[in-house]
Amino acid sequence: MGGSSFGTQFRLSTFGESHGVGVGVVVDGCPAGLPITVEEIQRDLDRRRVGQSRMSSARQEGDRVRLLSGTFEDITTGTPIAMLVENENARPGDYEAIKDLYRPGHADWTWDAKFGVRDWRGGGRASARETIGRVAAGAIARKLLATAGISVVGYTLQLMHLRAQVIDEAEIERNPMRCPDPQVAEEMVALVEQARRDLDSLGGIVEVRARGVPPGLGEPVFDKLDADLAKAMLSIPAVKGFEIGDGFAVANARGSTNNDEFIRRSDGTIGTVTNRAGGVLGGMSSGEEIVIRIAAKPPASIAQEQQTVNRTGEAAPIVVKGRHDPTVLPRLVPVAEAMMLLVLADHWLRQRGARL
Amino acid sequence: MGGSSFGTQFRLSTFGESHGVGVGVVVDGCPAGLPITVEEIQRDLDRRRVGQSRMSSARQEGDRVRLLSGTFEDITTGTPIAMLVENENARPGDYEAIKDLYRPGHADWTWDAKFGVRDWRGGGRASARETIGRVAAGAIARKLLATAGISVVGYTLQLMHLRAQVIDEAEIERNPMRCPDPQVAEEMVALVEQARRDLDSLGGIVEVRARGVPPGLGEPVFDKLDADLAKAMLSIPAVKGFEIGDGFAVANARGSTNNDEFIRRSDGTIGTVTNRAGGVLGGMSSGEEIVIRIAAKPPASIAQEQQTVNRTGEAAPIVVKGRHDPTVLPRLVPVAEAMMLLVLADHWLRQRGARL
Amino acid sequence: MGGSSFGTQFRLSTFGESHGVGVGVVVDGCPAGLPITVEEIQRDLDRRRVGQSRMSSARQEGDRVRLLSGTFEDITTGTPIAMLVENENARPGDYEAIKDLYRPGHADWTWDAKFGVRDWRGGGRASARETIGRVAAGAIARKLLATAGISVVGYTLQLMHLRAQVIDEAEIERNPMRCPDPQVAEEMVALVEQARRDLDSLGGIVEVRARGVPPGLGEPVFDKLDADLAKAMLSIPAVKGFEIGDGFAVANARGSTNNDEFIRRSDGTIGTVTNRAGGVLGGMSSGEEIVIRIAAKPPASIAQEQQTVNRTGEAAPIVVKGRHDPTVLPRLVPVAEAMMLLVLADHWLRQRGARL
Amino acid sequence: MGGSSFGTQFRLSTFGESHGVGVGVVVDGCPAGLPITVEEIQRDLDRRRVGQSRMSSARQEGDRVRLLSGTFEDITTGTPIAMLVENENARPGDYEAIKDLYRPGHADWTWDAKFGVRDWRGGGRASARETIGRVAAGAIARKLLATAGISVVGYTLQLMHLRAQVIDEAEIERNPMRCPDPQVAEEMVALVEQARRDLDSLGGIVEVRARGVPPGLGEPVFDKLDADLAKAMLSIPAVKGFEIGDGFAVANARGSTNNDEFIRRSDGTIGTVTNRAGGVLGGMSSGEEIVIRIAAKPPASIAQEQQTVNRTGEAAPIVVKGRHDPTVLPRLVPVAEAMMLLVLADHWLRQRGARL
Q1: Amino acid B160: pLDDT
Q2: Using a CB cutoff of 8 Å and minimum separation of 24, what contacts does C159-166 make?
Q3: Disulfide check for D19: which of A248, C2, C160, D122 has CB 3.0–4.6 Å away?
Q4: Are the beta carbons of A219 and A301 closer than 8 angstroms?
């Protein structure tokens, strides 16, 4: 029950540690007949990669993915698709000094508590490098869902007190914060640079949207579409909250204003006038846009001194060296997109069994 | 892939519809040797039951649970524990009039979109009566976890703008709102009564805490403890948001103040000075109290007229009759507790396989 | 991980003990829109029931199934289908005398070794009554597969040295042995009656065939169609062997004679001239008839004295009283059919995800 | 639902095709703290490798395994253990000529029927090279079970009419047939050489035994230990039958002679006088030796002309060139051992959850 797999019909299993041979993923259950090239997968991986800008950490790696199985002549064959990204440029020496210290905000302590042993180099499997496998698998899910007209887009909605006032998706990839509001993006960049100088880190919010999702995806009880999205998002490192549609704002709403009324749309299909539900009703997609938000904590690795203990419980100061981002937001975007894509691909396949 | 099961080692499968024969659950994977009586299960069910006060709807049912299997002489035998609550007092006539209309905020439309057919009586399987099975299974999980010193408690933290200022757990079961702040509870009751007169409904927030959880529960990648809690909570009807620890507040926090520093506690164990993480680090329990919050939307069933369409898309006004709560919060509390208990029981068992 | 569930997309979970409240099953994943009545389910259960003839034991029960959920107006709704058969006519007194003794050939000892506690009344959950849930679920699978033109039939092929020389399916339900060869059936009946007089029991072989199975069902690696059939069959009490097609006879065959050559059939489809493979190639159905055989041991409960030990290891003679069959074969037939139906229904649904 | 995973708690997922980049496996759920080296894994792989003798085909490959993740300083860390063997010496040209023909006895036809597309080079994923991942995972299971005193050994029991008369395990690795009877082994070798000259292939039987298995492993209903063993064995290419203990011979046995009577052994533990059950009672291990047998068909690839059809159904003769074994038996032995090890490791871990 290692818990390194996700999904039921479109199912991925990631493996690998930050400073071992590499990180990778096996996708089982992708239908045969889908055209996919390694370049398409690499494209999504490149968006996740570190070192793209001053916003993210200085570790420079190619992160070139190798497609080990599951396609033939650039078509999926219905067999497991394994992908591997070998680690390069690993500097375990950065971690040697603190291998017996529990970094505040990190999983060093809980890892020891659980397993009694851990690969302390670069966080081992707790490293964000694990998400490479998710993004690679998400790229396949993206291609699969595109055949059904489903698309997913994510962006940085908020950094600390700075929140996008305009959602212009064309702007997202044009600024290092992946913020859809170019003016707020500039302010965010300045805030990040100041945080770097302060040896500190910053929290924020990412929003992800899915369009073209047909009504009826998701199972009505435990495997609700939004329940699976919540799990998917909370499984990403640093995420501490999830909401769909109006989310926590419903706590202060009345039924008379919170309910979305149904209408017949101009194309004859049934829809809702508003979309406070965020595209899911009773755990199943409504046909409206799916809108979710996740809260990401400020990265735990900061270059200023903190107090902690070592493995035997003795108090000790710690300074976490190495290459660290003052914010995870820009890199969180493609990972959050991937997780939504994976959930949708799974439920899109599951829906094939819903009716006689 | 019906999605009516939850958990991996401690696994429950619920069944049943609101106005069919009954609702129930099968729990598979409970260890042998646990003392449990039907009365202990009934006790938790009674907390969930409707009609306990003016706060909740008028449907009066005994909801007496029948233990069909899995125990012998009040001890679990390691075999599936099946439980059934037969439906009484069902009045499908309340629903006959609106069986072809899509109630705003309900799953009627998405259910039809998914399956093409549905039991429209009382919401069918989308009814909150489905949660009876969860609470019954949760009662067993509660008993199991008690053997390890783990306990769970939930309460109404917030109703609309009213938020508990004091957390006095002794007060929770003393007021109909299950609010730990007796003064705020009174204000909440007044607000609910006003909403009933307004033919409207109200949203709010429930908080759930777990104590005595040993460090190391949860799997580090997809099956993180908080990821499974998020799924568990979002699988409850009406829940639109989930957060753990400081939750969405981390969006406006810095690493220097958000990290919880480690200390050696007076009993020699390792802990953290603060608990902003809410008891989970890297997906595994830290040994600190687990604290989560969920946002519940105002119940969709309101007795005032709303606009909607019927199955063929024609516009029609709708008035939802029947017995409905202006708030789900007091009844949500035991359901949310149950879901946390079920997640913890599952991971507590999973942890048995973590080490050689 | 209680292991009381079977299947992935068409998934059943059985529960219940021989002398508890009852035995039952929950089927999750049956597509919505399938017409099914409780009478259709009862029909298959009646074939499994004891007391139909001198061939089987004297316990007379109605075994009336109650449909608790999952259908509405005799149509499946896509929600879990729960079914319950309450126990009647239970005589635990028959077992009181031997509750501390380990019956040879039974699971009393292994059950104690595993769980440390057991419901000793009538074998508890180890009783063949557990198969009631399988047959009830199988009846739904039968109805589902019929929509695709797939049918399954089983029969007693062999009892001790007596083996059917003719396979006349019209004869199967005409004799108490469910043997397709009426002449051999008579000899079998005489042998069973002699065994009853000898206070002994007899082994045999059941054969099951599936027709109309389209090519391509089954997954090519671990979840091969024949692998899942093997598991399904070995999960039935008393089964000690499984073979498909020529089965163990291939141990003495050459490739030149064992391979089935391909041809184009008169209807233009591709098939094989012979069917030594038994309808499965590389784990996937070939379109030819699926043919499997299972070996059933002589029932362990015999009325003559045997040597054994009690729970503390002390030697003691034992005489197993109660109502016992000298052969399980006629009642094994519908159970084996059910298991094949369940495997086929599952893989028929799984196939929906195989291709883009 | 690709079906390329096996096991519940000790779970492996294989990937890869015969003539792609490589074949591999990810093992999730191995407990932390197990010492294991890549050499130990290679040792089992070397036993499976082709080209060891005249008995097996001429393809010479190193099949060097690369350990990608999951261990640190030669100790398992509780994270997924990924392993990769890259393909060398692949000669797809051997297959180009027959890529549109359906080889008798092979899965070409069923693969096309299922997926509509396939990697025809060397059988693609249907190649026996897929079993490399099983053997690599089995090596870890072997190491894990050794910590509990459990061991597994397999051997060639029968080739055509030749059956070992003596079971001398010391002889197994001393002859190319892996037959425990050295005299019969010589006859087997002669028979294989004759078959090679005849351009034909031969069937046989492999027996596998497990010792030191504590009583109580296996789940009593669907996930019986023998049911999981049956699935495991039938999932191996070429296997057409499975039996445990006396197996098909029970069809001709009486209860009075087939039941194993219980005794207290000299060490005070409970056991049985005989072991006709093969070490499993009611789906759970009895503490006696587990003994199973599997029937393997003669390899389908023979160098003599056979009749078949192409993808469009036109009749065509076929001669299967390439490197093929006249018997799979010696190489089947380590694969069958691996599958038993994997089942036992899984149930050994599952047993940790059986009792309070």
Answers
A1: 98
A2: C159/C188, C159/C191, C159/C192, C159/C202, C159/C203, C159/C204, C159/C327, C159/C329, C160/C191, C160/C202, C160/C203, C160/C204, C160/D251, C160/D252, C161/D252, C162/C187, C162/C188, C162/C191, C163/C205
A3: D122
A4: no
Q: Residues D292-341: pLDDT tens digits? A: 999 999 999 999 999 999 999 999 999 988 778 899 999 999 999 999 99
User: How many Å is the maximal CA-CA distance in chain D?
Assistant: 69
Q: Show residues of chain B in contact with C4, CB under 8 Å.
A: 26, 28, 79-80
Which residues have C-beta within 8 Å of that of residue D257, sequence separation ≥ 6? none
- In angstroms, what CA-CA distances link B39 with A153, B14, B35, B84, B139? 51, 20, 12, 14, 10
Residue C55 CB neighbours (<10 A): 23
Angle formed by the axes of helices D38-48 and D329-350, nearest 10°? 140
Partner residues linked to A208 by β-bridges: A154, A292
- List all residues 6 or more positions away from D147 whose beta carbon is below 8 Å from its beta carbon: B356, D34
**How many other CB atoms are found less than 10 A from the CB of residue D267?**
6
Measured between CB atoms, does C115 come within 8 Å of chain B? yes
Cβ–Cβ below 8 Å for C68 and B119 = no
Let me know: does B256 contact A302? Beta carbons within 8 Å: yes
Of B32, B147, B353, the CB nearest to D352: B353
Is it the case that residue D102 has pLDDT exceeding 90?
yes
* Token pair for C9: 């997309």
Task: Kindly provide the ipTM of the predicted complex, given to two decimals.
Answer: 0.97
Q: Which of D2, D16, D29 sits opposite A28 (nearest CB)?
A: D2
Q: What is the DSSP string of C288-348?
A: SPEEEEEEEPPPS--SS-EEEEBTT--EEEE---S---S--HHHHHHHHHHHHHHHHHHHH
Q: Answer for the pair B217, B344: CB distance below 8 angstroms, yes or no.
A: yes
Decide if B352 touches D, using CB distance below 8 A. Answer: yes
Helix (H, G, I), strand (E, B) or coil at D143: helix
Residue of C nearest to D294 (CA): C248
Q: What's the farthest any 2 CA atoms get from each other in chain C?
A: 69
What is the C-alpha to C-alpha distance for residues B82 and C25, in angstroms, rounded to an integer? Answer: 10
B4 in reach of chain C (CB within 8 A): yes
pLDDT at B50: 57
* Whole-angstrom distance, CA of residue C128 vs CA of residue C296: 13
Nearest residue to D17 (alpha-carbon basis) of B17, B126, C221:
C221
The reply to whether C353 touches chain A by the CB within 8 Å rule is yes
Q: Which residues contact D353 (CB under 8 A, 6 or more apart)?
A: B9, B29, B31, B349, B352, B353, C1
- Does residue D352 belong to the interface with chain B, where contact is any CB pair within 8 Å? yes
Give the C-alpha distances (Å, rounded to integers) separating B32 from B214, C310, D215.
Answer: 22, 21, 16
Q: Please report which confidence band the pLDDT of residue D93 belongs to, taking 50, 70 and 90 as the band edges.
A: confident
Are D15 and A118 an interchain contact pair (Cβ–Cβ within 8 Å)? no
DSSP string, B187-235: HHHHHHHHHHHTT--B-EEEEEEEESPPTT-S-SSTT-HHHHHHHHHHT
Name subunits touching A (3+ CB pairs < 8 A). B, C, D
A353 with C31: Cβ contact below 8 A: yes
Task: Please give the structure tokens belonging to residue C228.
Answer: 């899942």
| Contact in structure between A78 and A32 (CB atoms under 8 Å) | yes
Query: Which residues of chain A make contact with C7, given a CB cutoff of 8 A?
Result: none
Supply the pLDDT for residue D94: 72
Buried/exposed code over A1-23 (b: 16+ C-beta within 10 A; e: otherwise) = bbbbbbbbbbbbbbbbbbbbbbb
pLDDT band for A52, please (50, 70, 90 cuts). Answer: low
Among D126, D287, D314, the residue with its CB nearest the CB of C220 is D126
Shortest distance, CA D219 to any CA of chain B (angstroms) = 10
Residues 6+ apart with CB under 8 A from C96: none
